């Protein structure tokens, strides 16, 4: 049985793809995440560039989804949606945005050719308020030779803890992200990013995570983060 938060998250993500019209008195997440025109490819489904191990992990998690305790989260490129055009208005910064460029906007993690950058799939457990991201990084994410770039790891951490915060809180932005890089991650390896919503205090959501090898023997990275729910009434300078 789906929890309310999970159902809301799935609805929001589906709405983004399917162009569901906003509800009569939409909440902020409903307004932002419903849309009119998006690329309709769900990137969270197996692709030829996924390795055998990535595919195996996908299948294992899909099995866990069968009793409803885990949910497979879809992901899209979010190109040129009407609602994403509206987003700068929500943070009162629309005059700073180049509207023409915004129409070419694409989710950063989806802007590489298949297999070269970020390949990932996320699964959400509503009862435990956690998301596991299965991540296969490509060769264009190299930092030190043979290893992932720290910024690429930070990006995937932000995407995972961010999704955890969005599912629980709606429209949020990363306010703080602290990362301990404990071991370098070999280029093109597959890792698990385990994120956990620790607490909510008013508009603040605290989410922690770690990055582990698939066999859980190597702890590569640990991180804590703070997300703040946007105050839609507030005027930013
Ligand atoms: C269509 C689109 C679909 C999208 C789906 C995409 C999925 C991808 C997901 C990818 C995800 C990627 C996501 C991204 O990449 S988000 C991009 C990176 N982040 C930003 O650019 C955010 C920039 N910062 C801001 O806009 C504002 O500062 C925010 C909005 C965060 C807060 O400004 P606001 O004016 O609203 O709030 P406030 O200042 O009254 O503070 C409120 C409370 O918070 C506390 N506080 C604030 N900051 C910090 C701090 N640094 N450390 C500790 N505490 C901090 C503060 O003390 C106060 O606490 P309290 O006094 O109440 O106790």
Automatic annotation (TrEMBL):
Residues 33-45 have a biased composition (Basic and acidic residues). It is an enzyme of class 3 (hydrolase). GO terms for molecular function: hydrolase activity. It catalyses: dodecanoyl-CoA + H2O = dodecanoate + CoA + H(+); tetradecanoyl-CoA + H2O = tetradecanoate + CoA + H(+); decanoyl-CoA + H2O = decanoate + CoA + H(+); (9Z)-octadecenoyl-CoA + H2O = (9Z)-octadecenoate + CoA + H(+). GO terms for biological process: apoptotic process; fatty acid metabolic process. It is found in: Cell projection, Ruffle membrane; Cytoplasm; Mitochondrion inner membrane; Mitochondrion intermembrane space. Residues 17-45 are annotated as: Disordered. Residues 17-32 have a biased composition (Low complexity). Pfam families: 4HBT. Residues 146-215 form the Thioesterase domain. It is a peripheral membrane protein. Its main location: membrane. PANTHER family: ACYL-COENZYME A THIOESTERASE THEM4 (PTHR12418). This is Acyl-coenzyme A thioesterase THEM4. It comes from Myotis lucifugus (Little brown bat).
């Amino acid at each position: 049985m789906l929890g309310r938060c999970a159902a809301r998250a799935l609805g929001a993500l589906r709405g983004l793809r399917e162009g569901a019209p906003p509800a009569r008195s939409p909440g902020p997440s409903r307004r932002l995440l419903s849309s009119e025109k998006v690329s309709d490819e769900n990137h969270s489904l197996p692709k030829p560039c996924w390795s055998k191990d990535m595919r195996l992990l996908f299948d294992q998690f899909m099995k866990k989804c069968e009793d409803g305790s885990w949910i497979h989260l879809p992901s899209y490129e979010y190109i040129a949606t009407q609602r994403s055009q509206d987003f700068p208005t929500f943070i009162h910064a629309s005059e700073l945005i180049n509207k023409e460029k915004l129409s070419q906007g694409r989710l950063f993690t989806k802007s590489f050719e298949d297999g070269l950058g970020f390949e990932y799939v996320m699964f959400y457990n509503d009862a435990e308020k956690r998301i596991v991201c299965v991540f296969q990084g490509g060769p264009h994410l190299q930092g030190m030779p043979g290893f992932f770039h720290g910024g690429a790891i930070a990006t995937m951490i932000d995407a995972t803890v961010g999704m955890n915060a969005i599912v629980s809180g709606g429209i949020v932005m990363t306010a703080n992200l602290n990362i301990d890089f404990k071991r370098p991650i070999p280029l093109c390896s597959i890792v698990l990013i385990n994120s956990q919503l620790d607490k909510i205090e008013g508009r603040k959501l605290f989410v922690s995570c770690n990055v582990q090898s698939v066999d859980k023997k190597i702890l590569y990275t640990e991180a804590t983060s703070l997300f703040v729910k946007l105050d839609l009434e507030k005027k930013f300078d």
